[in-house]
Every structure is written in structure tokens, then in C-alpha cells.
Amino acid sequence: MDNHALDHVGWSERVASLFDQLPGRVPARVVGIERGTARVVTPTGELTVRLTDFAVAVGDWVALDDDRLADLVPRWSQLERLGPEGARQTLAANVDVVLIAAPADHLSLTRVERELVVAWDSGARPVVVVTKTDLPGATAVVEELTARLGAADVISTSSVDGRGLDELRALLQRPVTAVLLGPSGAGKSRLVNAILGHDRQAVGEVREGDRRGRHTTTTRQLVPLPSGGSLIDMPGIRSLGTDASVESVAAAFDDIETLAEECRFADCAHDLEPGCAVTAAVAAGTLDPARFDSYRKLERELAQERRHDPKAPEPKRARPR
Ligand SMILES: Nc1nc2c(ncn2[C@@H]2O[C@H](COP(=O)(O)OP(=O)(O)OP(=O)(O)O)[C@@H](O)[C@H]2O)c(=O)[nH]1
Ligand SMILES: [Mg+2]
Ligand SMILES: [Zn+2]
Question: How crowded is residue 187: how many other Cβ atoms within 10 Å of its Cβ?
């Protein structure tokens, strides 16, 4: 691939071919959003543009006409959540990898399971990144997590002693764009700094009592990395509502999906049906009841979402990957 002035923010052959459809436009990538403006990187430098006609997200590729936003390039992936009021929000666009930051000192397995569903639904590949594994007790936490999560990819990291960082750097090569998803205080920003090798992102203390963060990061930012890829740091998210597709739940709970293929009835609800392989696995002790419980909670929540949304009576289908 020829060198391009936007290589450091993820320029690729795929992006180049998208811009082939927009002759005469200047390509740019959104690297930050703040109060009605977007910070974009263009081949000749950075620029702040007003957002009037377009709703853009960090990671979007946009076409400029005279320093004005003229087009939004079609996205190949988008990480979305439903806010507390049910409004859909795009957290990041055109990401290839979703890094789910799970702090070893304050880990919620059900939260990670939900984040995996949301990540699969984006169209990008999820990787669970356990942070702070330098802390005592982390080994047991990682073991519990990997035992619970079926086939998910898990990387153990520490921004203090540097473990796992090379594995992350190997993943974050040009032109990969990754986004950091996780609760406040998980160590997302410090991880960005550790991979960068200098302190660019602000890092905040966690509260002594419950190890929760103080919402230090307040804006989403795409950071070019020395390893060639780009990493989007995000504010910690409190509530991660979702209307993910049935396929995304199946991908995140592949172990339960595999069991379900053995149920006597194809439409088994894994409740009181005879010949249910899923409840049989729970009874036999081969499926963690807590994992089955999070699966059922997510399924119920998604069924609710589909019922409430009058425009979407059918379950949402997964985007082609
Ligand atoms: N022991 C240890 N502490 C860490 C590690 N990474 C981060 N921390 C600490 O965890 C706290 C939170 O780190 P941040 O990087 O600010 O967390 P964040 O996920 O960016 O939080 P928000 O910006 O609020 O969403 C800070 O006190 C960090 O020093 C680690 O690898 N080991
Ligand atoms: Mg942060
Ligand atoms: Zn069943």
C-alpha cells in the first residue's frame, strides 16, 4: 500500500475505495467530538468543523468541501447503545476491534457479558482486556472470567508492570481501529498512555470504598498509536442499554447456543420444556447457572425492546460481517 497522509488515523484500501465514490472531496477522519463540533484530521492537518447537518461519531470518515462537512462515508461498523431514555447513541464508528476493559479489582461478569453482546452487535471483533492484573487476587479473577465466557478472547494486562501490552500492540497494527469500552475507573486511559509510552490521557483515582471511577474522561478521542493502529478512549459508561440482534446474543453466548442445538424443540425457551439440553446442563453442573441467568436477562430485555419499538416489530437482523 502506498503511503498516505492519513495512515496514522487508519487510512486503508477499504477507506480509499469508499472515497473513490466521492471525487473532488477531501477525506478526513473524526478524532474527537465536543459540544456541536468535530475535530477532524485531514491530509494537511487538524481542523474543527461545526456539526449542523450530520450526526457524526468518533471514527467516522467524512468528506470535506472547502473545510465544510459535505458527506458522511458509509460505516462498516458502529458501536451503539440505548441511553436511559431509549435514545440510540453511536459511541464509535468504523472500528475493527472492541476492547472490553474489565478491571481485575472490580470485575462484573454480567457487565462483561452484556458488553460482549453490544460489541458483537457493532460488527467489530470483541476482545476482553482484563486490566490491573498486577493487583493481588487477579489470577483467580482471570480464571473465573475465562471459565465463564465461553470462547471469548481474553488478554490479561497491567499498565503498571506492562504485562499484556505487547499482545495488545500486536493487535493494534495499521490500519486497525479499536475502541475501549468499560466502566469508569477500569484503567482505559492509563492503558492508552501505557501503549503510547507517554501520558496523553488524564487518569483519575478510583473511590476507596467500591473501586468505582470518577468519570475522568469526558470526551471520546481517537489516538494514533506508535504500533500503527488507532485506539479510541471513551468515558466510562454507566448504563449500556441494547437492542442487539439475536445473532449478537448467540455470538456472545456461543456455549449456550451450542447446547440449545440439542434441545428437543427447535423453539425451546429453556424453561420447563422436556428435553431441554440447556437446563439439563445447568442441572448437571456443566453450565454455570449465573451465566444462564445473564443470558435469560438479556434475552428478556431484548424481547422488551423489540416489543416497545413500533418501527421494529421484527427482531433486528445482524449486519453482514
Ligand atoms: N494497579 C493498577 N492500577 C491501575 C492500572 N491501570 C489503571 N490503574 C488505576 O486505576 C485508576 C483509574 O484509571 P483511569 O485510566 O483513569 O480509568 P478510566 O477507565 O479511564 O476511567 P474513566 O475515564 O473515568 O472512564 C487510576 O487510579 C489508575 O492509576 C493498572 O494496570 N494497575
Ligand atoms: Mg479515562
Ligand atoms: Zn432448551
Answer: 27
